[in-house]
Design a protein that fits this description.
heterodimer; A: 145 residues; mainly alpha; Protocatechuate 4,5-dioxygenase, Chain A; 11 helices; 60% helix; 0% strand; B: alpha/beta; Protocatechuate 4,5-dioxygenase, Chain B; 2 domains; three-stranded mixed beta sheet; 8 helices; 34% helix; globular
């Protein structure tokens, strides 16, 4: 084993929140979104998918989920759901229930339409340039002003 | 004695499974990807491994939000393809190697790796897509599989250093298994991709290729790449590449690179794979 210095948990977590347009699925988010994710997980069973599709609101009301999250689930506001502790691998059960291809569902979280997003991927994807750090972006902005 | 004869790093994008299952592997979109795997599929028919230790992550299929094992090993006799919301992939059941898996599990625990043991589970695209990429569409998979599931979803995920050390311990465990078996270890996932938020769609050809260079070399520098570097440079789901380090750690200090391939894009993801052999 190496003798590398121990990672400080507070610094570690602070860095995870310094990435633009990204919600890293930390323990805090996992706690907050627990029932959103467990609800999504339930859609893996065909009989649950059928019940959900028949009456989405009634199915959601069976779960210990906040009204805010229920609304976000009903309108498929995935960025909001990330903020509320949803995780994309769980939320993808809802993509599947909707019959939406994964990449198309992902594109709804960006400022692009699905055809625009698909074209961006064909052209090599989104660059890391300017997308690495919120702090660095703010510092750069300050320098130019 | 059992021995690790080769290591493979490979993406496990679910859309590749769809391409195989729907016969689209040679169309304009998927053609360049599958052409990159032609060499590897041919090589596997000659390498004829008995067992593959398949390092992957579960994508909310076998594990829900309730129980989150950092490192888990499948010790069952067989595993079915998971229903990920579309119905299960039409692939053969995956046959385990329970004797070897239990041997590895016990050895790892004595070697200070406190593994979670799984007796029954379904396996999702993370495990079945690499099998399809390496073996095509056989009626029965030509290998037994020891699944090693890694948490790369809920933070903190294991460090690169810990993953590399786990690979080293897996190699020691395999070497002490008395049966004469040809064993490969595969690390799967990646390469750069981000599936969430306004930054979704991030890809990083330059960084991914630097990572492939590091794995091909005789240095262990890759084990010290911090999580935040994967996240900033390769997107939130690029972190899956720590699983490749388990494979690389198991191959020892020096390796020979047999094949390497990289292509952008597949769905939201940069596709890469590498075939390595331990060298003296």
């Amino acid at each position: 084993m190496s003798d590398k210095p121990k990672q400080d948990i507070h610094e570690y977590l602070a860095e995870l929140d310094d990435i633009p347009g990204t919600r890293i699925y930390t323990a805090a988010r996992a706690r907050k979104g627990y029932w959103i994710n467990q609800f999504a997980m339930s859609l893996m069973k065909p009989e649950n998918r059928d019940r959900f599709k028949a009456d989405q609101r009634a199915y959601l009301d069976e779960w210990n989920i906040s009204e805010e999250a229920k609304q976000a689930l009903l309108v498929r506001d995935y960025n909001k759901l990330l903020d509320l502790g949803g995780n994309v691998y769980f939320l993808s059960k809802l993509f599947s229930a909707d019959g939406l291809p994964f990449a198309e569902a992902v594109s709804t979280m960006t400022d692009m339409t699905w055809p625009e997003y698909r074209q961006m991927m064909m052209d090599g994807g989104r660059s890391a340039e300017g997308n690495r750090s919120i702090r660095a972006n703010l510092a750069a902005l300050k320098d130019t002003n | 004695m059992a021995r690790i004869t080769a290591g493979v790093g490979s993406s496990h994008v679910p859309l590749l499974g769809v391409a195989v299952d729907q016969g689209k592997t040679r169309d304009d979109y998927f053609g360049p990807i599958f052409a990159g795997y032609d060499w590897t599929r041919q090589w596997e028919t000659e390498a004829k491994p008995d067992v593959v230790i398949l390092v992957y992550n579960d994508h909310a299929s076998a594990f829900d939000a309730n129980i989150i094992p950092t490192f888990a090993i499948g010790c069952g006799e067989r595993y079915k393809s998971a229903d990920e919301g579309w119905g299960p992939r039409p692939v053969p059941d995956v046959e385990g190697h329970a004797d070897m898996a239990w041997h590895i599990a016990q050895s790892l625990i004595l070697d200070d790796f406190d593994m979670t043991i799984i007796n029954e589970m379904d396996v999702d695209h993370g495990l079945t897509v690499p099998l399809s990429m390496m073996f095509g569409q056989p009626e029965k998979w030509p290998v037994k599989v020891v699944p090693v599931a890694v948490n790369v979803v809920t933070y903190p995920v294991p460090s690169g250093n810990r993953c590399w050390a786990l690979g080293e311990a897996i190699a020691r465990a395999v070497e002490s298994f008395p049966e004469d078996l040809n064993v490969q270890i595969w690390g799967t996932g990646g390469m750069s991709h981000q599936l969430q938020g306004p930054r979704a769609g991030l890809l990083n050809r330059e960084w991914d290729n630097k990572f492939l260079d590091l794995l091909s070399s005789d240095t262990d520098a890759a084990r010290y790449i911090p999580h935040i570097e994967y996240l900033r440079e390769t997107g939130s789901e690029g972190i899956e590449m720590v699983m490749w380090l388990i494979m690389r750690g198991a191959l020892g200090e020096k390796v020979k690179t047999l094949h390497r391939h990289y292509h952008i894009p597949c769905s939201n993801t940069a596709i890469g794979h590498i075939v390595l052999e331990p060298a003296i």
